[in-house]
Amino acid sequence: MTTNSINQNNQFNTNIENSLLIKYGMNILNTPFVSDDDIQLGLGEKYLIIEKLLEAHEFAKTNVMAGNITGRGFATNVCTADRAWSMGTNFNNTRNDISSICGERSAILFSYNEALLRYSRRPKGKFDFKIKYLCMASNIDLDEITEMIAPCEDCLSWLNTNRYFNFNTLVFSFERTKEKELVVRASRLVNFLPYKTYATSNVFDLNKEIRFSKNSQTSFIKYKLDPKDALNLLSEAHKKYLDNDFSNISNQKIACSIIANDEIFSSFKVDWTKRWHIEPLEFCVGNAIEKYRKDTQIKAIAYFGDECAKDKDKIHYDGVVSIKSLGRIRQKYAQNDTLLILNFENYILITTIGEYLPKKFVQGYKIS
Ligand SMILES: [Zn+2]
Questions:
Q1: What residues does each domain of the chain span?
Q2: Fold: same for 4-192 and 209-356
Q3: Alpha carbon of 344 to ligand 1 centroid (Å)
Q4: What distance in angstroms lies between residue 74's CA and the mean position of ligand 1's atoms?
Q5: I need a labelling partner for 364 at 20 to 30 A (CA). Which of 7, 70, 125, 183 fits?
Q6: Global pTM value
Q7: Residue 101 Cα, ligand 1 centroid: separation in angstroms?
Q8: What is the pLDDT of residues 174-232, one digit of tens each?
Q9: What span, in angstroms and rounded, lies between the C-alpha atoms of 280 and 269?
Q10: What are the tens digits of pLDDT across the range 20-66?
């Protein structure tokens, strides 16, 4: 990967006399912006982003000091397309995901509510809410941080929509380079979601072109599988998809098949309501773990299903693949090199979890 310095221009005219930059002894010269993407930012914008990152850092620290139950502090400063800033921190009723929300989602909710309030006071035209920047920070002291903070897979599955985010949405975070230099890492949100623009197909045909990702060949060798096994797995997922003719209140059928150890497990999405369901990948993996216990090794995953849920005449692009479930299973039983097989309109893609979800969430905490 190449890292380019982001081009600067000289439009800086922000008053920073009382800013956090002074408190932390930071400026553009000692805090460069780096990115693997082509991103253009003016000098004034860079100062503002550093300040918003520092503000989020201090807010994350406050959350820990105030006794947040996880002992972890994260905060995000979000900027909307019409340049309104809002900040939110992680909110944890308990340590588990049901009653917790990450800093970035907390900030987006805050921002959305504020934008809607402004709109309700002066409704004019269409309500248009789009996020421009996400400035993410943690409570870790700036001299101790290492890698950038990336949105976790729960957040990514939440951000994986074109409704409030788009190609231009940028994510910023402090990072310390290998040379120990403190920099601001800038990334496009879509680069955390590389297949965001590709919708899978629910038309089954094994005679399509097969595309292999760069790392898939190594995974075939490691797991002693071949492309025929991958196509067979997709075919099993398709059979399971056809088998689900009763449980889909959402009118969205999704099936998943996995190879765990040397056995195939298949499951389909079961809806409780339009909104609540059992995700089929986690269902499959649960069945495999019941059988193989701690020795469970997930070698390959195939998803097949409908990209859209339908509600009367309305179509909702809820997606087939669960970023959240992939993120969970790669913590245990699956790996970054676990194969992932997806059915697109003109080809079948054989990739790996690590390539599909390119950035692993780094908590950045020292475990003592
Ligand atoms: Zn998150």
A1: 4-192, 209-356
A2: yes
A3: 28
A4: 9
A5: 7
A6: 0.88
A7: 7
A8: 999 889 999 999 999 988 886 666 789 999 999 999 999 999 999 999 999 999 999 99
A9: 5
A10: 999 999 988 889 999 988 899 999 999 999 999 999 999 999 999 99
Output the CA 228–ligand 1 centroid distance in Å.
Answer: 37
Cα 52 to Cα 66: distance, rounded to the nearest angstrom: 21
The CATH architecture one would assign to domain 209-356 is 3-Layer(aba) Sandwich (3.40)
105 Cα to the center of ligand 1, angstroms? 7
Ligand 1 centroid from CA 104, angstroms? 7
Residue 151 CA to ligand 1 centre (angstroms): 5
Tell me, in angstroms, the distance from the centre of ligand 1 to residue 309's CA: 25
The answer for residues whose C-beta is within 8 angstroms of residue 13's C-beta and 6 or more apart is 44
